[in-house]
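Friendly challenge for the regulars: who can give me the structure tokens for this chain first? No prize, just bragging rights.
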Amino acid sequence: MSSETGTLKAYRMRARNTNVNDVTLLATDYLNHFNEALMLAELVMDMPDMLDDFIDWSPCSYKDHFAGSGIADRELAIEAFAFSPAEYKQPFEITIRQLDSEIVSLQRCFGTSEGSDGGQKIRVAAENKCKIIRELIDNAGAIINGKLRDTQFESTDAANETEAANIDQDEINALFG
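First reply, four minutes later:
Bragging rights claimed.
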């Protein structure tokens, strides 16, 4: 048994009955960071005064999230991350980059908007973006729990740029009036 295999086995044993998955060595608590952003984005559509809170959200690495976390298993989550098997860690990291990208893109969309009485096109675009974010969070959760999916989500920025180009700035401003 190689030392790497022994270390993986040791972390898997330590992870049993903790918040860290004992197969993937990843923890779902990290998804709270993205769920917070999603919740704020959905609130902004009906409560524009939540915009600043949503705009203040920023990407946070897995390790940084746990370093600032109060969960009991935070040290294990940080240490075990380095030994997460590539079959889980690589799609997880890809999904997290996509999540960060989608959320930052939505922040830019909302951030360039001023005004509010409900432009339907921007609302539909934001709802679609929130749906994508929710699917990515679900995908990340599945990976953390050892369920790899056959498909990875592709960034939708190009598709959304076309959709956003069809949104008039007055409609955007009307949403946040």
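The radius of gyration is 19 Å. Confidence is low (pLDDT under 50) at residues 151-169. Your move, everyone else.
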